[in-house]
Amino acid sequence: MAVTCIPFRFPGLRGVRCAFQTRVGGASRDAWGGGNISFAVGDDGASVAANRRDLRETLGVRALAELRQVHGDTLIFDPLPVAPEASPCVDGDGMATARPGMGLMIKTADCQPILLAHVEGRHIAALHAGWRGNRMDFPGSGVARFCEYYGLHPRDVLAVRGPSLGPARAEFVNFAAEWGEAFSPWFDARERTMDLWSLTRHQLLRAGLLPAHIFGLDLCTASLPELFYSYRREKVSGRQAGVIWIEEER
Question: Which of 18, 82, 132, 186 could, after both became Cys, cross-link 199 (CB 3.0–4.6 A)?
Answer without folding.
Answer: 186
